[in-house]
Design goal:
The complex is a heterodimer of chains A (about 500) and B (about 325). Chain A folds into three domains: about 230 residues, P-loop containing nucleotide triphosphate hydrolases (Rossmann fold, 3-Layer(aba) Sandwich), CATH 3.40.50.300; about 170 residues, 3-Layer(aba) Sandwich (Rossmann fold), CATH 3.40.50.300; about 70 residues, no CATH class. Helix content of chain A is about 35%, strand content about 25%. Chain A is built from 17 helices and 23 strands. In chain A, the strands form five sheets. Chain A has a six-stranded mixed sheet with strand order 6-8-9-3-10-11, sandwiched between helices. A six-stranded mixed sheet of chain A has the order 17-20-21-14-22-23, with helices on both faces. In chain A, strand 20, helix 15 and strand 21 form a beta-alpha-beta unit. In chain A, helix 14 runs parallel beside helix 15. The relative contact order of chain A is 0.11. The longest helix of chain B is centred in the N-terminal third of the chain and has 26 residues. In chain B, a hairpin with a 2-residue loop joins strand 3 and strand 4. With about 325 residues, chain B is mainly alpha-helical. The chains are: A alpha/beta (about 500), B mainly alpha (about 325).
């Protein structure tokens, strides 16, 4: 790709970007949210035609104006938001719109299933081609998407945050698969926020900042610090460091959970959080982290165990009951569960506290505006117009709105489930600061995260859960390193 | 090099699926249960006679044909509320044209009426992106009014015997023509839904429009196509009304849209799109006819029939709910 420019109206999102993607190589694409990564990929994929510049595949200039053009050029996408039809089978999805026809021009699903099986066998993956996609875990959706792209003879595969929803062993499987793809001469564009992954899997890296390439080099020549510096620019990446906020051990216990089980994977989780404390909840995907959060926030009822909030035994029937008791949950998926994306920033911020913003029984526009301005300022939400829809904000800013919205309800206990997923480093440190501040005001935070560096940066204590049970509890000072914590999570520590 | 990624369908998921399947097949269970109940309690009133059985098929043929097309519309996550009115309009247009210009122009005029209205519905939904609920709600009134207007509310008799023979009045030996129409509609519908690219694109558009578009499916064209098909199928249904009752009237088909939609939903097609069960739709339609027939035999008056029918539909849909 040469001198790619993409403008939306007068705004140039990409300002002359060059990128060379070599067959059999993994090319990492990094940059903060809003740096132009997604736009660049949408250009490749044919969603947005380029304003100027040239794209060549195998030396031949191609004109990509729609998704069909991209497909023809051999560019396949593995989307961050999965793009499969849940109600169809794996084989039907792989051959969607290119169905294998049998006698009389009718679709031959059996042939598609055989072809899909062959494809999976070639990749060393075992998925039943006849399973409906909705029956499979999300990790397998991604494999299906990769197979779908390969079935179209893609020579370039774009993976957007491919590990975002994968557990550790699934990530390993994906990396193995990437090796297989490389050995077949397929070029992979690997978009990720995670340095360790980039350093492990990528051969080359291109870093975008403000629509320009600021770094393009073989990964082996770079240190993680060097990449991070390129991504965030002059700002220092010093904030993923634990700060002792001087906790007192005799602070009152705000949340005490004992042997909590629910009708999910959750079997027996116990933990306490004192006022002012941030407790990290670590564990693999599917270990019961989210399920525990759901019980605390009143979305699922416990089948066993006791939950004490501020010393009082609670049994929440609804999320509203939990909110009234001072528990707020920032859910895992902000798009699905945390926000009304089509509504404005202001509407989203004020939604949980509308009852406080009335005058004479009606909503007061003045109070709504004041609160919105206050929150946008306090949490440094980057938005030109707080009355524009949420969907126009970057992922990081959307997440800030979710955090602001809930902190503004003045909860005593804040439960955060993967609060920084898909958020750039700059915003991540800001969110961690917000969390620290909130806790320091005498509140309790339960911080659930798969990203150990941030967990170690923010948590005063870490509870590890495995297979639905609280496995061990570590004071921050007991954790020697990220590797040490990872071993405990994996259940391999001595 | 790559260690195998072993993935089998998790047992938890398959357990869920078994339950879902039971739920999406509720129509067959309901059909059998109601049939047995009627057979026990109404056996002496002639419920089980061959003639009565064929009557149920005759009375449901028009609903079944519209419901097969509606299955495609609903599987695309759209809706067509205008089918009943299109049937009425097509019945009067085909009757008037047959009387005036003869058999073939009459048939073509009826089909054309459905195609035009279907194309208008589809065009407004696909091109102007107006929700199909609103477009077809407007068309419901528009087509019904048009039918009443052009006939000055008068019935349009059909004297062409061949027309009556073809469109529902005739029998093939012991087999009523309407049964043949039903079988053809269901067979074609099943093939298109399950074994052609169009069916796949319909399910993809309804199941995840974004993914379908990224896969290169022209989702606007699919929406247009299903509404066009629905319009033509409704016209055929109207022409069958005209043939069976030997006249075209603006009232034919009035209110059918609700029966048709109920039949499709009962049959296991998801209102949210992505799933389309043609055979289920047939049984949904037969189920509606079965209930009508049984309630009439049981001697309930029209008002009581409506109450019982409504309650049964709610119960069946509640049972087939996914969660």
């Amino acid at each position: 790709m040469r001198a790619i420019v993409k403008s939306f109206g007068p705004v140039a999102v990409l300002k002359s970007v060059d990128m060379d993607i070599v067959a059999g190589e993994v090319h990492a694409l990094a940059g903060e949210n809003g740096a132009g990564k997604s736009t660049l990929m949408k250009v490749l994929q044919g969603v947005h035609p380029i304003t100027s510049g040239t794209i060549a595949v195998n030396g031949e200039a191609v004109d990509i104006r729609n998704t069909a053009d991209a497909e023809k050029a051999g560019i396949g996408m593995v989307f961050q938001e999965f793009s499969l039809i849940p109600s169809m089978t794996v084989a039907q999805n792989i051959f969607l719109n290119r169905e294998i026809k049998g006698a009389g021009g009718l679709i031959d699903d059996r042939a598609a299933e055989r072809a899909a099986k062959e494809l999976f066998d070639g990749l060393g993956v075992h998925i039943d081609p006849r399973a409906r996609v909705e029956e499979l875990g999300t990790a397998y959706w991604q494999l299906v998407e990769i197979a779908k792209a390969l079935a179209k003879n893609a020579s370039v595969l774009v993976m957007d945050e491919p590990t975002a929803s994968l557990a550790k062993h699934e990530v390993e499987n994906l990396f193995n698969l990437i090796q297989t793809l490389k050995s077949r001469g397929i070029a992979i564009v690997y978009i990720s926020h995670r340095m360790d992954e980039i350093r492990r899997v990528a051969d080359r890296i291109t870093v975008l900042r403000d629509g320009r390439v600021v770094l393009a080099a073989p990964v082996a020549e770079l240190s993680a610090a060097g990449i991070i510096e390129a991504i965030i620019g002059r700002r220092l990446a010093s904030d993923l460091i634990y700060r002792d906020r001087g906790l007192t051990v005799d602070a009152p216990v705000l949340l005490a959970a004992e042997n909590i089980a629910s009708s999910t994977v959750l079997q027996s989780v116990s933990l306490t959080i004192r006022a002012g404390e941030i407790v990290g909840l670590a564990g693999l995907m599917g270990s019961g982290r989210t399920e525990f959060a759901r019980v605390v926030a009143g979305m699922d009822r416990p089948t066993k165990g006791t939950l004490n909030i501020d010393g009082k035994r609670m049994r929440f029937a609804t999320p509203l009951a939990a909110q009234n008791a001072g528990v707020a949950l920032i859910p895992e998926d902000r798009r699905e569960q945390g926000l009304v994306l089509e509504h404005s920033v202001s509407d989203n911020l004020t939604l949980p506290v509308l009852h406080r913003l009335k005058s004479k029984g009606l909503l007061s526009p003045r109070k709504l505006r004041e609160l919105t301005e206050h929150l946008v300022g306090r949490f440094a939400v980057k938005v030109a117009d707080p009355y524009s829809p949420m969907s126009q904000l970057s992922g990081g800013n959307q997440q800030k709105v979710v955090v602001a919205k809930w902190i503004n309800t003045e909860p005593r206990i804040l439960v955060m489930d993967e609060p920084t997923a898909g958020v750039d480093i700059g915003t991540k440190t800001e969110i961690l600061d917000i969390v620290r501040d909130f806790a320091s005001q005498g509140n309790a935070v339960l911080f659930i995260s798969s990203e150990l560096p941030e967990l170690l940066a923010v948590a005063d204590r870490i509870v590890v859960i495995r297979e639905g049970r609280s496995d061990s509890e570590l004071a921050r000072s007991d954790v020697q390193s990220e590797e040490h914590l990872q071993l405990i999570i994996q259940g391999e520590a001595a | 090099m790559s260690s195998p990624t072993t993935v089998v369908r998790p047992s938890f998921a398959s357990r869920v699926v078994t339950r879902l399947d039971w739920r999406s097949n509720i129509i067959y269970i309901a059909f059998v249960v109601v049939f047995i109940l009627f057979a026990i309690f109404l056996g002496n009133d002639g419920f089980l006679s061959a003639n009565n059985m064929l009557n149920i098929v005759r009375q449901t043929a028009t609903i079944s044909i519209m419901a097969v097309a509606m299955t495609f519309v609903i599987a695309t996550a759209e809706i067509d509320l205008s089918v009943g009115s299109i049937a009425g309009l097509a019945s009067v247009i085909t009757a008037m044209a047959t009387t005036q210009f003869g058999l073939v122009p009459g048939i073509l005029a009826g089909l054309l009426a459905g195609a035009v209205i279907g194309a208008v519905n589809g065009g407004l939904v696909a091109l102007l992106k107006i929700p199909s609920f609103l477009v077809t709600l407007g068309m419901l009134g528009l087509a019904a009014g048009l039918a009443q207007w052009i006939t000055s509310s008068a019935p349009q008799p059909i004297t062409d015997r061949l027309y009556v023979m073809i469109f529902g009045g005739g029998d093939f030996g012991p087999v009523p023509g309407l049964l043949v129409w039903t079988i053809v509609a269901v067979a074609v519908g099943w093939l298109v839904m399950n074994r052609t690219g169009l069916g796949r694109k319909v399910l993809a558009t309804g199941g995840n429009p974004t993914a379908a578009a990224y896969t290169g499916i022209n989702t606007a064209r699919i929406k247009f196509t299903v509404l066009l098909i629905s319009g033509v199928a409704a016209a055929v249904a109207g022409m069958l009304y005209a043939g069976r009752l030997e006249s075209g009237r603006f009232q034919w088909g009035q209110g059918d849209e609700l029966t048709v939609i109920a039949a499709v939903i009962l049959g296991g097609t998801s209102l949210f799109g992505g799933r389309g069960a043609i055979i289920g739709t047939l049984f949904g339609s037969l189920f509606m006819g079965l209930i009508n027939n049984g309630l009439i035999l049981a001697g309930l008056d029209v008002a009581q029939q409506q109450v019982v029918r409504g309650a049964i539909i709610i119960a069946a849909v509640a049972l087939s709910r996914k969660k």
